[in-house]
């Protein structure tokens, strides 16, 4: 079973974004993850490297970009192992985030995440 | 305002405009270089090079693209430098070189302190270094003999013809 070498705050941010996307049945490309977590590109890609090495996520190329003038993007989603272990890791390290998400869904979480997390506790 | 100043103004404007237009192209080149620097696995480097190009393209603004690419490049340089340092420190060759340098410096400091003059110490340092260098050069001149001896051993009776 593959382990993540270091679990930092950016790692948890990226995992949270991917778990959110997984719950909505979506995949995220690199720029979407960078925007979602609000971290720099190199930081996010360091985390993606670690998650890929641990086989928690897998990437797939889109056939072509909807904007033909731009290059194709690579989309990331949680693997079976990642989908099983990432929520558990979030529950362990960020219990507030998980309970908020369970209580109110993604949009509500973004708007009132802290409030709901406080109530859930 | 002189004609020279007008020309300078026009030239600077043109240069800035050109730099803005060139920056997305430079950003694409830079992220490709960054991917090659950052990853030792060539397959992953190729994947990331294409992927980072698309990430840079998604960024709004020409100069922001370049700034983002510079961030990727700086991070890759840092990773590369750290990897290089980690791979050279534990090597026995480096340890031997450091030990040799420490011996020379120690001897020079001890001589200087004993003689009460830093010049004597510096002279001792240079002399010991020169003697050591000369000894190593003499050893290195013997390399043809060493190679011949190894070849003879390899082609000896134990070795299958």
Can you describe what's shown?
The complex is a heterodimer of chains A (121) and B (161). In chain A, α1 crosses α2, α1 packs across α4 and α4 crosses α5. Chain A has 5 helices and 3 strands; from the N terminus they run αβααββαα. Chain A starts with 8 loop residues before the first helix and ends with a helix. In chain A, strands 1-3-2 form a 3-stranded antiparallel sheet. Chain A is mainly alpha-helical and 121 residues long. Chain B is elongated. The mean pLDDT of chain B is 81. Chains A and B meet through α2 and α3 of A and α2 and α3 of B.
The poorly predicted ranges of chain A are 104-121
How large is the share of residues in beta strands of chain B?
A: under 5%
What class do helices, strands and sheet pairing of chain A give?
Answer: mainly alpha
Biggest interface and residues each: A-B, 16 and 17 residues
Helix count from the secondary structure assignment of chain B: 6
Q: Give me the Rg of chain B, rounded.
A: 29 Å
Using only C-alpha atoms, the radius of gyration of chain A works out to 15 Å
Helical proportion of chain B, percent range: over 70%
The strand order across the widest sheet of chain A is 1-3-2
- Which shape of chain B, going by the Cα principal axes? elongated
Span between termini of chain B: 89 Å
pLDDT average of chain A, as an integer?
Answer: 81
Name its key features:
heterodimer; A: 121 residues; mainly alpha; three-stranded antiparallel beta sheet; 63% helix; 10% strand; disordered C terminus; B: 161 residues
SSE layout and pairing:
The complex is a heterodimer of chains A (121) and B (161).
Chain A: H1 9-23, E1 28-29, H2 30-37, H3 41-53, E2 57-61, E3 74-78, H4 80-93, H5 95-120
Antiparallel strand pairs in A: 1-3, 2-3
Chain B: H1 3-38, H2 42-58, H3 62-88, H4 92-115, H5 118-141, H6 143-154
Helix pairs in contact in B: 1-2, 1-3, 4-5
């Amino acid at each position: 079973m593959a382990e993540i070498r270091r679990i930092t705050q950016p790692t948890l941010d990226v995992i949270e974004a991917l778990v959110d996307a997984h719950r909505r049945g979506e995949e995220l490309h690199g720029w979407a993850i960078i925007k979602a977590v609000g971290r720099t590109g190199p930081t996010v890609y360091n985390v993606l490297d670690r998650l890929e090495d641990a086989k928690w996520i897998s990437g797939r190329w889109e056939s072509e970009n909807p904007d033909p003038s731009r290059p194709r993007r690579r989309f990331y989603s949680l693997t079976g192992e990642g989908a099983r272990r990432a929520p558990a890791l979030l529950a362990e390290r960020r219990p507030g985030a998980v309970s908020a998400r369970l209580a109110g869904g993604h949009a509500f979480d973004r708007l009132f995440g802290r409030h709901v997390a406080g109530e859930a506790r | 305002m002189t004609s020279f100043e007008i020309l300078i103004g026009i030239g600077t404007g043109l240069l800035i405009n050109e730099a803005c237009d060139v920056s997305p192209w430079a950003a694409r080149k830079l992220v490709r270089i960054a991917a090659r620097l950052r990853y030792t696995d060539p397959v992953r480097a190729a994947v990331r090079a294409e992927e980072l190009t698309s990430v840079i393209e998604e960024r709004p603004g020409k100069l922001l693209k370049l700034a983002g690419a510079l961030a990727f490049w700086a991070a890759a340089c840092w990773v590369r430098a750290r990897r290089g340092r980690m791979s050279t420190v534990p090597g026995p060759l480096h340890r031997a070189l450091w030990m040799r340098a420490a011996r020379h410096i120690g001897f020079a400091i001890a001589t200087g302190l004993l003689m009460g003059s830093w010049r004597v110490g510096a002279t001792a340092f240079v002399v010991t270094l020169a003697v050591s260098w000369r000894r190593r050069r003499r050893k290195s001149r013997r390399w043809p003999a060493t190679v011949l001896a190894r070849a003879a051993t390899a082609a000896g009776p134990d070795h299958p013809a």
